[in-house]
Amino acid sequence: MQFNKKHILDIESLDPEEISMILDTAEGMKEISRRPVKKVPTLRGKTIVLFFQEPSTRTKLSFDTAAKRLSADSISISKASSSIVKGETLIDTVRNLEAMNPDIIVLRHSSSGAPHLISKRVKSSVINAGDGIHAHPSQALLDMMSVREKKGKIRDLKISIIGDIAHSRVARSDITGFSKMGANIFVCAPQTMIPMGIENLGCTVSPNIEACLDEADIVMMLRIQKERQGNTLFPTEREYALRFGLDKTRMALAKKDVTIMHPGPMNRGVEISSDVADCSNSMILEQVTNGVALRMALFYLLSGGSRHADSN
Ligand code: CP
């Protein structure tokens, strides 16, 4: 089966069959990273631009690693190292990148909609690596891959997402993706961090964290996105941690085999305690490992690959 999408801009534009195809392909890619020589020639001759206008550790390095493991040439630019600081617009910058004939542009941007805008102006494929508070599709896909791998399915699981839902592009993409794949999603946060109409994405707003944890198969903790909050939306970090943080005592309210997730970066002692972040139920670092395979799958499929990767 051929993958027919030119861009990966959000989860809304992927149907469940396409999501399954990406996850299946990523599963196949994972084995390459376990080899002594972690490189295949599949995308030799392809050029991938990584254009990150916001800081990133996991997303940028995993896209870069993914490109290198498939033998593509990856080129990185950031806002600080580009001529954007001299007044060049995003569109002009991207048109200049386009003039160098890349195959795929990966963009992280502080403005919601920036990847959609550039996808209309360039011939290359565009992958959204996180835009404002809008979407982070590759994170949601790697989260779905991780849940499917851990629990053997996504359908009918209770997935609780706790934290700054209002400012989290991960929350929006995860709610949309997991709900498309048949999970039951619950969200919990201070009232000031629950956006109006969030239920329309396919989730239930939980009255309190205890209800969210009860019978949960997956608990995903989210960081408070201070960089996107205009005013302070909660009294103190200490109070937030007491009411909405996950520590071992609170975790006991969930099932024994509950899986703890976090997209990172974590603020230990605020939304998650160290004893939870590092416990055996946590798959936070496995999410990062899966992020490389998932991004290899995106590059491969956007370059014309079919479901079962010929990894050579
Ligand atoms: N999950 C995530 O997007 O992390 P980074 O900001 O480090 O890329």
Description of the structure:
The chain has helices at residues 16-30, 58-69, 90-98, 114-119, 137-151, 169-180, 209-213, 237-244, 248-251, 274-277, 284-302; strands spanning 47-52, 73-78, 104-109, 125-131, 158-162, 184-188, 204-205, 218-221, 259-261. The protein is α/β, with parallel strands linked by helices. The protein has two domains: 16-135 and 288-303, Rossmann fold (3-Layer(aba) Sandwich); 137-287, 3-Layer(aba) Sandwich (Rossmann fold), CATH 3.40.50. Helix 5 (137-151) crosses helix 11 (284-302). The model has no long low-confidence stretch (mean pLDDT 95). Phosphoric acid mono(formamide)ester binds at residues 56-59, 130, 139, 263-265.
Order of neighbouring strands in the sheet with most strands: 7-6-5-8-9
Shape: globular
Which series of helices and strands comes N to C? HEHEHEHEHEHEEHEHHEHH
Number of domains: 2
| CATH topology type of the largest domain | Rossmann fold
What hetero molecules are bound to the protein chains?
Answer: phosphoric acid mono(formamide)ester
What's the helical proportion of residues?
A: 25-40%
Tally of helical segments: 11
The number of strands is 9
